[in-house]
TrEMBL record:
Listed InterPro entries: UPF0047_YjbQ-like, YjbQ-like_sf
Descriptive protein name: Secondary thiamine-phosphate synthase enzyme
Tree of life domain: Archaea
Family to which the UniProt record says this protein belongs: Belongs to the UPF0047 family.
Family annotation (SUPFAM superfamilies): YjbQ-like
Gene3D superfamilies named among the record's database cross-references: YjbQ-like
Organism: Haloquadratum walsbyi J07HQW1
């Protein structure tokens, strides 16, 4: 899974067609100790997405319900190909990546913020990359 010290990849399995998974601990694990800079979290798929929000069970369920309701499940041209246009559209609306500030090896997120993988066409196993960009003058985060 390890590409270089500056980029880590991990896999995560999802259990249903639409679901929200907390990936904060996997992202944190990819951050070098004492590093200050940015972490770009990127999902390498066209029917899954990444966002930052509160990881609360009822809210996760509400988001799954909202996501299901906001896009029609049928009637799309891409469905002639593989029947999952709605999944692609949901993923496009959310986006494939988030950039998260890192302070001294810790995710500089707010109290209620978690990094969330949004599965739009599960169940599947998804690959997520975390690319680390140290601030230019940060002596503690040499990637050599
Ligand atoms: Zn498709």
């Amino acid at each position: 899974m390890q590409r270089s010290r500056a980029q880590t990849r991990f896999k995560i399995s999802t259990k249903s067609r639409l679901s929200v998974r907390d990936i904060t601990s996997q992202v944190h694990a990819a951050v070098p100790e004492n590093m200050t800079g940015m972490a770009t979290v990127f999902v390498e798929h066209t029917t899954a997405a990444v966002t930052v929000n509160e990881c609360e069970k009822r809210l996760q369920s509400d988001f799954e319900t909202a996501l299901d309701g906001v896009i029609n499940n049928t009637g799309w041209q891409h469905d002639e190909l593989d029947g999952n246009a709605d999944s692609h559209i949901r993923a496009m609306l959310i986006g494939a990546s988030e950039t998260i500030p890192i302070d001294s090896g810790e995710l500089a997120t707010g109290t209620w913020q978690s990094v969330l993988l949004i599965e739009c066409d599960g169940p599947r196993t998804r690959t997520v990359s975390v690319t680390i960009t140290p601030v230019a003058n940060d002596q503690s985060s040499s990637m050599t």
